[in-house]
Amino acid sequence: MKKTKILVNLEKTRYKVKMIGRPTFAVAGVLRKLATRLDRDKSVTRISIGMKDCEGMDSTIMGMLATLALKVRSREGESKVQNPGKNKQLLNGLGLGKLFQYVDEPEGEEGSWHELQTGSAPPAPPVQENAETILDAHKKLMETHEDNVGKFRNVVDMLEKELDK
């Protein structure tokens, strides 16, 4: 298994993200922070997610990708997934295909790439922050596709109860 990494490169009006390994909820907070940066940087109207080296992902990561795509869409921008491979089936399984254009093309090495997260076992984010990220991701999945409501209602209910304590 490849070491999990999420890399980002800001190229004028586009965020380029590379996902390497098998990102899970444990590293989803970095995508949440990228979404916050996207809120501040209104000039970004495109996002591309490179998945050539992505071996899979969990629903929290997919919810964060949906969040990024919807922010770009609200600016009438475009979101694409490069070289999705088997990840296309995962994304489509949660109804996210309508948010992304799938393309098979080089992901590019040029530019200044910054690592947002490394390691197969990164330092754990604070429990509260991690729970909020997982909650936000699953709410976004439920908003994105009605079939996801039944899939994730219990997760959302449980997290909301935990966060209300």
Please give a quick description of this structure.
By secondary structure, the protein is an alpha/beta fold. The protein has 5 helices and 6 strands.
Structure characterization notes:
Helices cover 43% and strands 19% of the residues. By secondary structure, it is an alpha/beta fold. A 6-stranded mixed beta sheet has the order 5-4-3-2-1-6. Helix 3 links the parallel strand 4 and strand 5 (101-103). The chain starts with a strand and ends with a helix.
Regions with little confidence, pLDDT below 50 for 5+ residues: 118-122
* Spatial ordering of strands, largest sheet: 5-4-3-2-1-6
Rough outline = globular
Largest sheet: 6 strands, mixed
Query: What is the name of the CATH class?
Result: Alpha Beta
List keywords for this structure.
single chain; 165 residues; alpha/beta; Transcription Regulator spoIIAA; 6-stranded mixed sheet; 19% strand; globular
Task: Show the helix and strand layout.
Layout: E1 5-11, E2 14-20, H1 28-40, E3 46-50, H2 59-73, E4 78-82, H3 87-93, E5 101-103, E6 114-117, H4 127-144, H5 147-164
Parallel strand pairs: 2-3, 3-4, 4-5
Antiparallel strand pairs: 1-2, 1-6
